[in-house]
Design goal:
The chain is of the alpha/beta class and about 475 residues long. It has 3 domains: about 90 residues, Arc Repressor Mutant, subunit A; about 110 residues, Aspartate Aminotransferase, domain 1 (Alpha-Beta Complex); about 220 residues, Type I PLP-dependent aspartate aminotransferase-like (Major domain) (Aspartate Aminotransferase, domain 2, 3-Layer(aba) Sandwich). It has 15 helices and 16 strands. It has an 8-stranded mixed beta sheet with strand order 5-12-11-10-9-6-7-8, with helices on both faces. A 4-stranded mixed beta sheet has the order 1-2-4-3. Strands 13-14-16-15 form a 4-stranded antiparallel beta sheet, covered by helices on one side. Strand 7 and strand 8 form a beta hairpin. The chain is globular, with a radius of gyration of 29 Å. It starts with a strand and ends with a helix.
Length: about 475
């Protein structure tokens, strides 16, 4: 049933607003319909009459009416005019306008609660001293990288513009297979490598493939929060396994849950304490995985940088039973916004990983991986690693020397490799980190890396993104915060 009278809602035109006039008219009618102030079948004024009453041109009114017709709010009848769509009557009821008071809690996935309930982490909010996981961005080879980006952008082949493989473009996978075999002792073929959007996506894909909701997964304690997040999203039950100077305590893990489905480990440079998993524990971990039918996810996040010895070979290279899923990333060695990481997958799991990846985001971007493949093949990557290794070695030395200013109650741990170390202390670390962040010093509390109560306290200090000349002054500010805390 149509109502004859042509009635318009109160449309307030604000000529000073940045919102176009047609949007103001359209929004006013849409709100009146949704809130029940205009009912289904209600006739609205003609565009000419409405424009005259509002004192504006007819053009924005025509544009607004066309939009409302397209969205299904209006309908027209030849010779009769424009009406609120009759289809809105079915099941429609007035909806009150939003109010300032809080809305009642709506039903959502319970697993998201764990992320909302986190305490603030201001130490992740800045750049420079001593933000963890930040590389030396000012020393990146911009000229070489930019030339390759420009070349690929000018001559982007059609295959890189189409839908691609969930595994990623083949040239980068070939370059990675060669590099990983030489530099990390990883045994793989290009067909086993999947290019992903950073190590976090790699962890998420691995968790979805390897774990059913409710199944147990070992995590290092303390350990990497991103791994815990990926496992939590997959519905896994976390089993925190203690870490000591030899890395993950495999025997403790077996005592805690022998039948766990997987273990997520950082064997080459444990995050955050920096220990290297010893040879005996590597073999013990592989034996457990084989006996339990479990999987090992090896996160090799910054193993390229080792200062007092040669890099330690990957755990994956020792695996004779195809139980290790290997993860690497370019976020630390190049730059985080590149968003390129990779998985090395056991041959019999490749199809399953590819199917899950296809369901998540179909396939990775192609331009930057193509650039990266050339960057590696032309030797730029190897030169960048050599140059930055010397740079980070110097920054580490300056930081270790400067940390003596904290006093004898603080000791340095995990300084042998990577882009961070830990200043271990005997005081509550979170208040120190909170106050340091207010002073522009980004020191992550070691306690934030624990699932359960923190056994040790300290400050995780990244030195990759801070110039050596700036380190002493930053440590002095940190020492002042500690003394005042």
């Amino acid at each position: 049933m149509r109502v004859a009278a042509g009635i318009a809602p109160a449309v307030v035109i604000d000529r000073r607003s940045r919102k176009p006039l047609h949007r103001q008219v359209c929004d006013a009618f849409r709100a009146a319909i949704v809130e029940g102030r205009l009912s289904a079948g209600q006739r609205v004024p003609s565009t000419r009459a409405l424009a005259a009453s509002l004192g504006i041109s007819r053009i924005p009114v025509l544009t607004a009416f066309d939009q409302l017709l397209a969205e299904g709010y209006f309908e027209t009848a030849v010779g009769a005019g424009t009406f609120v769509s009759g289809s809105l009557a079915a099941g429609a009821r007035p909806r009150p306008a939003p109010v300032a008071s809080p809305l009642p809690r709506r039903r959502l996935a319970l697993r998201s609660d764990a992320f909302l309930e986190r305490a603030p982490e201001p130490w992740l909010g800045g750049f420079g001293a001593f933000r963890v996981s930040e590389p030396a961005l000012d020393d990146f080879p911009f000229a070489a990288w930019s030339r390759l980006v420009a070349r690929h952008s000018r001559r982007l082949p059609r295959r890189l513009m189409k839908y691609g493989s969930p595994m990623g473009d083949l040239p980068l996978r070939q370059a990675l297979a060669s590099y990983l075999g030489i530099a990390r002792g990883v045994r793989c073929e290009p067909e086993q490598i999947m290019v992903v959007s950073g190590s976090q996506q790699a962890l998420e894909i691995a968790a979805r493939v390897l774990l059913d909701p409710g199944q147990a997964a070992w995590v290092e304690e303390p350990g990497y929060g991103g791994a815990r997040d990926a496992l939590t999203l997959a519905g896994a039950r976390l089993v925190p396994v203690p870490v000591d100077d030899e890395g993950l305590d495999v025997a403790a893990g077996i005592r805690l849950d022998r039948r766990a489905r997987c273990a997520v480990v950082t064997p080459s440079h444990q995050y955050p304490l920096g220990a290297t998993l010893t040879a005996s524990r590597r073999l013990q971990l592989l034996d457990w995985a084989e006996a339990a039918g479990a999987w090992i996810v090896e996160d090799d996040y910054d193993s390229e940088y080792r200062y007092d010895s040669r890099p330690v070979a990957a755990l994956q290279g020792l695996d004779r039973n195809a139980r290790v899923v290997y993860i690497g990333t370019f976020s630390k060695v190049l730059f985080p916004a590149l968003r390129v990481g990779y998985l090395v997958i056991p041959t019999d799991l490749v199809d399953r990983f590819a199917a899950v990846r296809d369901a998540m985001d179909i396939f990775p971007a192609t331009l930057h991986p193509a650039v990266l493949a050339d960057f590696i093949a032309l030797g730029h990557f190897a030169r960048h690693l050599r140059r930055t290794a010397l740079l980070y070695r110097d920054r580490r030395r300056v930081l270790v020397d400067s940390l003596q200013a904290l006093g004898p109650r603080w000791r340095v741990a995990g300084a042998e490799a990577g882009l961070h170390l830990v200043a271990v202390g005997d005081r509550a670390d979170r208040p120190i980190a909170m106050r340091a962040a207010r002073q522009g010093v980004w020191a992550m509390p070691l306690s934030s890396c624990y699932v359960g109560p923190a056994v040790r306290h300290g400050l995780v200090l990244g030195y990759g993104g801070v110039a050596a000349a700036d380190i002493p002054a930053a440590v002095a500010r940190l020492a002042k915060v500690i003394r005042a805390n």
